[in-house]
Amino acid sequence: MTALLAENLTFIKNMNSEIYELIHRGARDKETWQVETAKNGEPILSYSPDVEGTATLMNSRYNPSLEGERWAQSIEQDIRDVEDVILYGVGMGYHLQAFLTRYPDKRLYVYEPHPEALRCLMEYRDLKSIFQAKRLILLGVGGSTRSQVGFLEDVLNLVRGNPVALAIPAYKLRFHHLYQQFLEDINRTVRARAASHHTLKRFQHDWVRNKILNMAHNIQTSSFRGMLGKCQGIPAIVVGSGPSLADEWDNLRRLKDRAILIAAGTSIQALLKQGIEPHLAVSMDPGEFNKRAYLSLDLENVPLLYIPTVHSDILNLNFGMKMHAFTDLDTPTAYLMKLTDDDPVFESTATVSGIAIQAALYMGCTEIYLVGQDFSFPGERLYTEGVEHASERLANYIVQNSTEWIPNMQGGLNRTNHAFNILREGIEQLLSSYSHCSFYNVSRIGAVIRHTRPGSLQSLFEQAKVQSEGSNWFRERLLNNLRPYSEDRIDCILKRVKELRTKSESFQEAFSNLEEHVCKTNVDGLNQRNKLNWLYKFEEIWYPVLHSEAFQRFYGFFLQEELNAMEKKWELIRSERNLDLKVERLVEVVKPLIVSWISISQDIGTRLEQLMERISVK
Question: Rounded to an integer, what distance in angstroms lies between the CA atom of residue 584 and that of residue 341?
Fold first, then answer.
């Protein structure tokens, strides 16, 4: 290791430990990624994925610094009216350096899809001279969809307006397909984020009820942890509620003893009405429609895997067995349950089918069949027969008012809507992370789902390797492997619940003081000295709240939109030298937070009291 590389690794470690680990553990393929010398003596990058093919120079062979400066000049009109810019590709850093020099007022977010390219840069150029600019807000590295989307989600948390995306010229040409995928991921992430915000607002009070009251069930039921890897070699069938489900009744009956039959969400209605009891029902949706789907069903022989967001009344029903898993964005539950790396934490998805798929993967299934996952309205129908939690009138209204179209499995187009496209894209993103597994789309009339191949349950049944496991095999595995929480773990959880109630009282007092300070004080009438004192008082009230783990991880979930808005403007407020403007902008971002607190805090307090009555915490 050269001294320059070692120095750059130290620098990048202080900047981003995850990128450091990625570069430090990796090694450069010197046949694919080579560093040459330009005519002016500067190092330039050469890319040759095919040993026998022609290498692509990623920089000018004459003067790469000048090339970067000319590019930076050429994009002036593209970025003139924006503050935030996303740059795809670092290469040897000349374009990045020229951008930061020419546009010191722009906030830059940089993504390098090839870790080896960044390593080349670190081997031959001093990172500090490039990356120390304060306007370089975020650096992301990695070629996977997950790393790319994770970077974009972080960007959207930080941007103050609509960003512009650019690519350095060589990346736009040589990696055109990857760059187009990056642009599509930006659009998908923006849509998913908008849908997430809408869902948070729509179900905010439902989530307060469910996440808090379901704690009583969490400590009384087993987590899914015991089923880790317990079904290796067994195919899984994840059942959705789409119209194509009706084509598979006979095949599902025949495969009951040869595969894991997982009912995602409301498909449990249709399955039970056909006399088919799934091995596992999975539920996570918080609202009344999901609750309605489970009422009046005979669930005595159906094990339920639930996510703590699920409607709390569902957990009071008489399931044959109940167990739970968690999702990575559910910070309130993670805080109260004191989750560790050993707990079953799934990636958050907008659809329960994503959770059902991950449950199958968690159990070790590598061959997963998607049934009734249509993500569209084949035959102008929303659900299969037997799924009745939504009225026929509502279902028809949804279908008739849907104006988007999606390619279907027969080569034609199906009507769909924005919400279904968001759900499908979320499933596609999830599947892309499991390239070692085989996913089959059984629907012959539903939407095309990327990262799946066409499949049939008939061919699965005919496979000689798929042997009968017996009639009660899955229930026996649940009974043999699931374990309750230890008494020590339960005591820790109960202690944290009690502590949250105490801290909630202090937060309530702080926000009352904040409301008095921000909303009921005539700030405009204060002189400069009193405005400065007003700022000091604000920080005295707000700092202990903001830096409380309980507030960040529990309350912060329900107030995330307001807190994100504050975070985006915080640096602008902090750096503002005009005291009048500083106070004005601070009041502007704090008032919505106070309003939302008033709306949600009383509900949280009531639900905490109900929870403590149920678990007898005094």
Answer: 44
**CA atoms of 391 and 397, how far apart (whole Å):** 10
CA nearest neighbour of 115 among 136, 89, 137: 89
Instruction: Kindly give the pairing relationship between strand 453-454 and strand 280-283.
Output: unpaired
Q: Specify burial of residue 199 (Cβ count, 10 A radius: 0-12, 13-18, 19+).
A: middle
d(CA 581, CA 568): 16
- Can you give the residue ranges of every domain in the chain? 3-200, 226-481, 487-615
The answer to whether the beta carbons of residues 68 and 100 sit under 8 Å apart is no
Length of the chain: 618
- Residue 350, both tokens: 């907008």
Nearest CA-CA partner of 279 in 478, 511, 93, 445: 478
Contacts 24+ apart (CB under 8 A), 606-609: 607/208, 607/209, 607/212, 607/213, 608/212, 608/497, 608/500, 608/501, 608/504, 609/501
What is the torsion angle, in degrees rounded to the nearest 10, for the CA atoms of residue 593, residue 596, residue 598 and residue 602?
Answer: -130
CB atoms near residue 376 (< 10 Å) = 29
Whole-model pTM: value is 0.82
Contact 98, 177 (CB under 8 A): no
The helix/strand/coil state of 87 is: strand
Tokens of 17: 């430990």
Q: At CA 579, angle to CA 578 and CA 581, rounded to 5?
A: 70
Stretch (H or E) spanning 222? strand 222-223
**CA-based nearest residue to 345, from 373, 326, 372, 369:** 326
Give the model's confidence band at 398: pLDDT under 50 very low, under 70 low, under 90 confident, else very high. very high
For the chain, counts of helices (H) and of strands (E) = 27, 20
Pairing of strands 326-327, 136-141: unpaired
CB of 140 closer than 8 Å to CB of 151: yes
Whole-number pLDDT of residue 513: 95
Does the pLDDT value for residue 50 go beyond 50? Answer: yes
Going by C-alpha positions, the residue among 110, 192, 168 that lies closest to residue 423 is 192
Mean model confidence pLDDT for the chain: 92
**3-200 CATH choice from 1.10.3470, 3.40.50, 3.40.720, 3.40.30:** 3.40.50
Tokens linked to 230: 């317990």
Of 387, 197, 187, 196, residue with least CA distance to 273: 387
Is the C-alpha dihedral spanning 46, 49, 51, 55 positive or negative? Answer: negative
d(CA 175, CA 191): 24
- Res 618 pLDDT > 60: no
Helix (H) or strand (E) holding 324: strand 321-324
Are β-strands 56-57 and 43-47 bridged in parallel, bridged antiparallel, or unpaired?
Answer: antiparallel
Lowest mean pLDDT among 247-251, 274-278, 345-349, 517-521: 517-521
Q: What is the pLDDT of residue 248?
A: 96
E-assigned strands of 402-486? 404-407, 413-416, 438-441, 453-454
Taking Cα atoms as reference points, which of 368, 218, 235, 369 lies closest to residue 306? 218
Residue 447 DSSP symbol: B
Decide if 384 contacts 273 (C-beta within 8 A). Answer: no
